[in-house]
Amino acid sequence: MTTYPFSSAELTKLYGADLVKKLNEKRIGANDYPMIKNFRGWVQPDVLINQLETGKPYPVKAAWIQTSNIIGGQAADPRRHYNAMKKLDFVVYVDLFQNPTSMALADIFLPAATICEKESFRSWWQPLGVSVKAVDGVGEAKSDWDINLDLAKRLATTPIKYNTVRELINDRLKDGNTNFEKLKAKGCWEYPPEGHNTRPYYRYERGLLRADGKPGFETPTGKVELYSKRYEEWGLDPLPYYEEPKESHVATPDLAKKYPLILTTGRRSPVFFHSEHRMIPWLRELDPYPMCEINDKTAAELGIDNGDWVYIENSHGKIKMKAQVTPTAHPLVVTAPHGWWLPETDGKEPNLFSTWEYNINNLTSMGNQAKSGFGGTDYRSSLCRVTKIKGGKE
């Protein structure tokens, strides 16, 4: 199941204005960034790290980390995340496998069951479907559903009515006039019937996107807004605009002389998802090394051949990858995959599965968020240089 944090307006409807006001007073970043306060019930992540480091305006004592490889995955400036989160008194980590983050931070590791070992359902996109447990769980592993239901029952101020995950699933499915058993009997999934209100096409024409039931989109005007009325209400520029990255050939020309290439961490692997699956042998056979793409003419100028090991370096750090020389890359752009760590190496500190040597996010920075509180991290715009490692090949 995927759930999304509630907006302040949605929380107000559910729990009342007084509770939401108290939450926003404590919610990290909510009083500094309008979208954090008004759009979703989460915190501003860079401000959270600042607060972990300083303890102000109040100390953060513990973390529950679930399926999020912070240090080896998506976090910008993972070394700073590592140092800040080491200050926590207590960390619980839930995942299928050990990884750099669990090895670095976890006081307690709760093994999660794989998709083959649990019952679940999906109610987003199409179709509606359930997953049927194929094999019994291994060891002490429990499904995320079971772990979170148990946690909710222990923390709830009012009793949780579900005793089992199956009860929870069936309660969520009842509005669709179905349940786990019915979907399982139909082959585990079904589309809504033709003409049903949940069909995804032209829902805006039928008033299915708005709380008031009127035709249109869930915006103040009911239209697709190029001029955002919500941004205007929040004191932000309601029109799209361009802002130069904090580091670039334009903003920092002297730095660009030292680091003349533009680093983007957007390269994707066809066999891996974020930082997952590096320990699966047949996937590593298909994609065994972290490979950065570099233009053939740029590579020739730097003395780099296809398959050479190279350092990618900037003012934030240095990591290594193999060069994939290609004419399709822009001459000024180096494209690198994120989330690389080596599970075959030592997982104990300080090595942490070699994440400090291979994770490209070690070259990214924090504190670049927009005035809204969202976006801004330099995953696509860091400056860097590339140098061939002596010897070049393994």
List unreliable stretches of 5+ residues.
none
Taking the sheet with the most strands, its summary is: 6 strands, mixed
Q: Percent of residues in beta strands?
A: 15-25%
Oligomer: single chain
Radius of gyration, in angstroms, nearest whole number: 24 Å
Order of SSEs, N→C? HHHHEHEHEEEHHHEHHEHEHEEEHE
CATH class of the largest domain: Alpha Beta
Alpha-beta content class: alpha/beta
Domain count:
3
Describe it.
The protein has 394 residues and is α/β, with parallel strands linked by helices. The protein folds into three domains: 44-190, Rossmann fold (3-Layer(aba) Sandwich), CATH 3.40.50; 212-241, no CATH class; 253-388, Barwin-like endoglucanases (Beta Barrel), CATH 2.40.40. The chain is built from 14 helices and twelve strands. A six-stranded mixed β-sheet has the order 8-10-9-12-7-11. The protein has a three-stranded parallel β-sheet with strand order 1-2-3, with no helix packed on it. Strand 9 and strand 10 (317-326) form a beta hairpin. Helix 1 (8-15) crosses helix 2 and helix 4 packs across helix 5 (78-85). The protein is globular.
Question: What are the SSEs and their pairings?
Answer:
Blueprint lengths: L7 H8 L1 H10 L7 H5 L6 H10 L7 E5 L11 H8 L4 E6 L4 H6 L2 E4 L8 E3 L5 E4 L12 H12 L9 H9 L6 H6 L3 E2 L38 H5 L19 H6 L2 E7 L13 H6 L4 E5 H6 L7 E6 L2 E10 L6 E5 L17 H4 L23 E7 L6
Parallel strand pairs: 1-2, 2-3, 7-11, 8-10
Antiparallel strand pairs: 4-5, 5-6, 7-12, 9-10, 9-12
